[in-house]
Protein: WDR34 protein
Organism: Galbula dea
Amino acid sequence: ASLAAMFTDGTAPGTNVQSLWRTARNASCEAKGCQTGKISTAETAVQSNTSRDAAVQTDQSKDAVQDFQQEVQVDYTSLLSFLQRVENAIIKELSKNWRSHAFDGFEVNWTDQNETVLCLHTLSHPEAQDQKLQVTSVSWNATGSILACSYGRLDSGDWSTENSYVCTWNVDRRGLNPQRPDLVVDVPSSVMCLAFHPSQPSLIAGGLFSGELVVWDTSRREDPVIWCTGMTDDTHTDPVYQVHWLPDAKHRNHFQLLSVSTDGKILVWKEERGGRLALAKGFAMVAQQIPRSTQLKKFTWGAAAVGVTSLSFSHFEPHVFVAGVEGGYSLRCSTAAETPALHGTGSSVPLRAPAELAFSPHGGPVYSVSCSPFHRQNLFLSCGTDGQVHLHSMLQTQPLLSLQLSKKYLFCVRWSPVRPLVFAAASGEGNLLLPSVFCFTGDVHLFDLEKSSQKPAVSLRQVVDDCPVYCLEFNIKQTQLLAAGDATGTVKVWQLSSDFTEQGHREMNHLEQLASEVMD
């Protein structure tokens, strides 16, 4: 009973507890402001009251001041006597320097130094490659910025009916697309050779498989053809393998167009109204009229035409040139020749016999010749199907040097425009050879005779497989550039190292020494 009394049910009254959290939160949400007391500002400046210049100078003796201020005494009588004594000797030396050719062709190279040879561009025209066309020729324009190439076929195929192309690229233009030429010209016949005009950068001449010549103006996009020979009695009957812009002796700064062909003719064309190229004069290679001392192989003495494959003019005698022929010989010729040619076919102008001297032959047809731009004795190079390069002087029939560069054909050889001992050769096994008088087979070989005559300084790859390199040209304006075209339809622009673009101070003497030693 006592426990029940202790634990009974009941209800306690409720109570309220005020929330401190809500009060604090509401207080924090009230808009309040806070401002410090007003800040006073003032501007002031600091300036020294006085200024003074000061200098430090070592003491100078009175004697030194007097010596400095004293007028220099000149013995004019003795000076005049000295000048009179040495006058003749000085004039003699100045005259000797004036007549000297020690620095002919030498130019200071202000461009950046290139330590290695690099491939700057690999250019191609996809449509030409789809047709499996080959690069038959390359040429730089007068400014050195535009490179042109011709597409055709040199190995096999129906050349006469197959369309081809002439393409140009501006290698100095930013954003160059190597597979998109700046200009593409469609040509109805295979283009075998190209040559930009020497002074007009937009004009380029081409020789076709059909025997025709065409001149294009690359500044005219719609209709670039400005002159052509058409098919006439004067037109070549065989493919044209080289074109050359020939200075017109009668008109200053005017050029005529020269062409060579395996029909045995060397023809000079002049422009006429209506866009027509007319024959101005011509020459014919006839076996009977080539010097008897070195009779051509495979030709009997008769009126058989000798096919001309290449030509190069002397840089020192404008009327003298060297022609390479299918019989394996290089021939010294002259545009001043007057002997009538014994040629049976008709022509609108009399054809003359230009050959004056035949040089020791190659073992097969000569494909390329190149005259030295440096040597006054008219050194020239020749190459052909025997894989050899011959170095000749026009003064003797035997070669100064005979170099076996390849086991296959050599299609092109070119002297360097800046290095007297450097030349380039394009081989039939996909090799581009750049020697200084010596070279051996490989990929792309650069030789420097001053360093070594037995091994290349640099070897480069032109093509991946054994495809021929058909053509190459140095850039005479941007002398570090060399372009080479091959059978894959590709043109590569190589940047040469400074070793191959800067002439040594005694290099000309070295070349003279080489020529004189062998000739003696």
Summary: The radius of gyration is 40 Å. The chain has a mean pLDDT of 80. The longest strand covers residues 276-284. Residues 217 and 224 are 5 Å apart (CA to CA).
